[in-house]
Fold:
Amino acid sequence: QVQLVESGGGSVQAGGSLKLSCVASTAIFSRCNMGWYRQPPGKERELVSRISTFGTTTYADSVKGRFTISQDHSKNTLHLQMNSLKTDDTAVYYCMAGPCMGRSAYWGQGTQVTVSS
Structure:
């Protein structure tokens, strides 16, 4: 059963913008903290941003002031607005939720973001 489905990745030049979306099941969206992680080529997966069920947000230092996480409760959708993109932002971006409902984490399939100079 697919719980998280991402979209919105692509290729952009440095300085450009992209908006990622993640549609979640109703159960996950209403009960779980959610967030975005990314895995750059040849590197470990890292936290980008998280949002709690109360709406509290956190960001990695590398994206503060450039990325914004948000939720559309009417569509069970998590967003990541990415502005002023840098080549270092190139990575596969993953939507995640949890820990909740007996699992440490739910993960989406990932979406590729490529930023060229």
